[in-house]
Design brief:
Helices cover 38% and strands 19% of the residues. It has helices at residues 74-86, 94-115, 131-140, 145-160, 182-191, 233-242, 254-257, 263-271, 284-288, 293-303, 308-334, 354-363, 383-401, 430-441, and strands at residues 28-37, 43-53, 60-71, 125-130, 164-171, 198-203, 206-212, 224-230, 343-347, 369-372, 419-425, 452-455, 465-466. Helix 1 (74-86) runs antiparallel to helix 2. The chain has a domain at 15-171 and 379-466: ATPase, nucleotide binding domain (Nucleotidyltransferase, domain 5), CATH 3.30.420. The protein has 468 residues and is an alpha/beta fold. The protein has an eight-stranded mixed beta sheet. It has a five-stranded mixed beta sheet with strand order 8-7-6-9-10, sandwiched between helices. It comes from Ascochyta lentis.
Length: 468
């Protein structure tokens, strides 16, 4: 990646903005497991995060202690695929899917503990999320989607004993936004800089762009985040096709780098699709039966007598070029003309694909510095589970210190401050957790966090990073 400085470069920040690194007595000390899976259901991503804070107004210290990806066994994945294949017809089987997801996530928590020799009672909270189930519930019963989420998270809590936090959403003052992803809120906390305009690109099965204006941009819009189309979705399908299911990803973009891009196919495909208006099909079942946009691309490449390497190169370019197109489009739509981006942080499994990264770096202006999310102390693959751990923490802190006479405003109204909304299934130690939080807060309301300090990373060489 193109590097000129580090995300830890705070030379432009005044001394008054720097926080002391003196040892502090920790008043808040919670351990949260973030666990999530994408639409492909290939694995569960798990991040164990320790959060500590001296006082509600102090820096929140974030330490990523463990990260792992647990494969979803075919014995679990196949039945879910069969249900998802039914789509809107699956209403009568939705409860079965809830059971499957509940057992999948609870088994994932237990497997994570076994792999890392952890006592399951050391977790204060679990923050959960799955994209696949959200899609099915939108198809079958949009009004009952929240009930389904409660059902499968109840299973997680029942089988692990841990309080489960889920169904996250963000309410922000004076800003009306639909389709804002809660992860963008965490991205802003991690990446907002006093003077630099930053963008975070997450390349998972789908790709997501978050635009994060600097603190000093008076009157600027808040963080804007949009899903902008396929990430690894098309590439992974093409890899399975080209290798007869022997490989499921083009790790590091090695195979695509050996091929030649058919630019005509790329331009023709993208000219007929607007991924800002409509995301690619998310049902993993349609992938299994070939009814997918990736298959259309492959058929076009086969008709042109292209090799497997050329096919992968072309489909990878479709992904990269679409990301670039949506980057420019979103920047133009939501920000003033001529808005310059200082830094682009790239994370997610697709951040390892050199064919995508090389293309973006070649096409972006020289002034845009591309960096891995490692620069802020978080491995790129751990981005999403860390975000869900953070969201779980904030939701519980806000909920447990809010007076009983102060209900959350409905989504149609503006809260006075940022608010993380979520649902909770209390576990065995829930009352103990509430007591600890109330004692820490001194009976005062805890609002959402503004200052984060990422400390000790999983990989040697990471320094303490003050992101305030």
């Amino acid at each position: 990646m193109r590097r000129k400085d580090s995300a830890t470069d705070l030379r432009s920040i005044s001394p008054a903005q720097k926080k002391s690194e003196e040892p502090m007595r920790v008043d808040l000390d919670l351990t949260v497991l973030g666990i999530c899976t994408g639409t492909g259901l290939t694995h569960l991503s798990c991040a164990l995060v320790r959060f500590s804070q001296k006082s509600p107004s102090a820096l929140l210290r974030v330490q990523l202690e463990k990260f792992d990806q647990i494969p979803v066994p075919f014995s679990v994945r196949d039945p879910i695929i069969n249900y998802l294949r039914l789509g809107p017809r699956a209403a009568k089987t939705a409860s079965c899917i809830d059971d499957l997801f509940g057992h999948l996530f609870s088994s994932g928590v237990k497997t994570f503990c076994r792999r890392h020799t952890l006592d399951i009672t050391c977790f204060d909270l679990v923050g959960t999320h799955t994209e696949a189930l959200k899609l099915l519930h939108r198809q079958t019963n949009p009004d009952g989607a929240r009930e389904h989420q409660i059902n499968w998270n109840r299973i997680v809590t029942a089988e692990t004993g841990i309080s489960t936090v889920f169904d996250f959403s963000i309410l922000e003052p004076t800003i009306v936004r639909s389709h804002i992803h809660p992860i963008a809120y965490v991205d802003r906390i991690l990446l907002q800089h006093p003077h630099k305009f930053r963008v975070c690109l997450n390349i998972d099965e789908l790709s997501t762009l978050s635009f994060i204006p600097a603190h000093s941009h008076d009157g600027a819009r808040g963080t804007i985040s949009r899903s902008c189309g396929p990430g690894s979705l098309l590439i992974d399908y093409a890899m399975r096709y080209c290798t007869s299911n022997d490989q499921s990803e083009d790790r590091d973009g090695n195979l695509a780098s050996l091929g030649k891009v058919n630019q005509g196919i790329v331009d023709s495909f993208l000219s007929t699709r607007d991924y800002l208006r409509q995301s690619p099909p998310l049902s993993i079942a349609t992938e299994m039966f070939g009814d997918h946009e990736a298959q259309q691309l492959i058929d076009t490449c086969l008709y042109s007598n292209m090799s497997d390497q050329d096919t992968l190169a072309t489909i990878t370019r479709v992904t990269a070029q679409n990301i670039l197109n949506q980057y420019h489009r979103l920047l133009k739509i939501f920000f003033p003309a001529g808005q310059k981006v200082d830094e682009l942080f790239i994370c997610g499994p697709g951040a390892r694909n050199s064919s995508i990264i090389d293309y973006l770096e070649a096409e972006l202006p020289e002034s845009v510095i591309t960096k891995p999310l490692h620069d802020v102390g978080i491995p790129g693959d751990a981005h999403e589970p860390v975000c869900y751990a953070q969201l779980a923490l904030e939701a519980v802190l806000s909920h447990s210190t809010r007076p009983t006479y102060m209900p959350l405003p409905p989504s149609s109204q503006h809260p006075p401050v940022d608010t993380v909304k979520a649902s909770v299934v209390p576990g065995r130690r829930w009352n103990e957790l509430l007591s600890r939080v109330l004692e820490y807060s001194g009976g005062e309301r805890i609002h959402t966090l503004k200052k984060v300090h990422v400390t000790g990373s999983l990989e040697a060489g990471f320094q303490d990073i003050n992101l305030g």
